[in-house]
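Structure (tokenized):
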């Protein structure tokens, strides 16, 4: 891909103009399939398609199709997304595509011109990566006991995590697979054993909400550097409130506490993924100070790309 360096530089300029929090455009992977397309004005755009298959009973299969074709567009400053997606569709015709598959593109949320092309080709905004920069601590009237979870809390942490998984499966990319409980149990047991930042909110001694988090470093060469500004970030992986306790302010109290604790750990901000079709999270997270940075456009199965 002889023009890749120029396209990456032009795309980095495009990103900087769109959103000051976007990192420079990522270099294309070396092991992907290269696509190119010519535009009416003579300009050319390119993209690299990577293909991944995830093992059964892996944690990734709880939020992803088992087989994914992901496109990294390199369109520079052009409006060539439509031409590139058309080329991608033709490439997929050469692939053996099953049902548990997806086409995925991560693209800056503020690029509305590109959004039109994604919609026209059948991709939908199933999730967004949203960010919240470090802000002054918000004082809330506390009606809960909030504490770090320990290995002894595995069963209640699992219950709350599965409740979130079940709900999200109706409004996003999550998949409730037959082995979901066992897969979650293994992953959560490991995280609790490693004293990962996980909090429980209790009311009258009963756990009613969960916040499962992590610390992520965005440094040159890391996967996070392609999505976030450099620095130490708090990742809010899962927030779950029991169905009967929703709408009572529990989530807001828990998240305010989590923000304070993650900031004490030296983070520059926090980030998370939420589903725009989710009528709860699409309202809740902006109210907590989050705003979209990247949109994850997706279509399942992969053969449904237009």
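Design, position by position:
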């Amino acid at each position: 891909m002889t023009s890749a360096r120029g396209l990456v530089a032009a795309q980095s300029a495009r990103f900087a103009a769109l959103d000051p929090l976007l990192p420079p455009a990522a270099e294309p992977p070396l092991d992907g399939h290269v696509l190119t397309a010519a535009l009416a004005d003579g300009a050319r755009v390119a993209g690299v398609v990577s293909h991944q298959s995830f093992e059964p009973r892996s944690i990734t299969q709880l939020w992803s199709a088992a087989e994914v074709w992901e496109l990294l567009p390199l369109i520079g400053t052009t409006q060539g997304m439509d031409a590139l997606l058309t080329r991608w569709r033709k490439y997929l015709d050469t692939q053996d595509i099953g049902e548990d598959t997806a086409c995925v593109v991560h693209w800056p949320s503020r690029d509305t011109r590109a959004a039109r092309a994604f919609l026209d080709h059948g991709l939908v905004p199933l999730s967004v990566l949203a960010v919240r920069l470090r802000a002054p601590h918000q004082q809330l009237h506390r009606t809960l006991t909030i504490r770090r979870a320990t290995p002894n809390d595995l069963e209640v942490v699992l219950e709350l995590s599965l409740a979130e998984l079940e709900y999200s499966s109706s409004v996003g990319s999550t998949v409730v697979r037959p082995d979901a409980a066992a897969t979650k149990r293994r992953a959560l047991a490991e995280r609790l054993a490693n004293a990962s930042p996980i909090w429980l909110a209790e009311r009258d001694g009963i756990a009613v909400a969960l916040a499962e988090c992590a610390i992520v470093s965005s440094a040159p060469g890391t996967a996070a550097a392609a999505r976030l500004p450099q620095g130490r970030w708090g990742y809010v992986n899962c927030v779950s409130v029991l169905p009967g306790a929703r709408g009572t302010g529990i989530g807001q109290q828990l998240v305010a506490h989590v923000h304070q604790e993650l900031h004490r750990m030296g983070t520059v901000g926090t980030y998370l993924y939420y589903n725009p079709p989710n009528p709860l999270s699409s309202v809740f997270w902006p109210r907590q100070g989050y705003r979209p940075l990247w949109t994850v456009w997706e279509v399942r199965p992969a053969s449904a790309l237009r």
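Reviewer-requested clarification: The two ends are 25 Å apart (CA to CA). Residues 2 and 136 are 47 Å apart (CA to CA).
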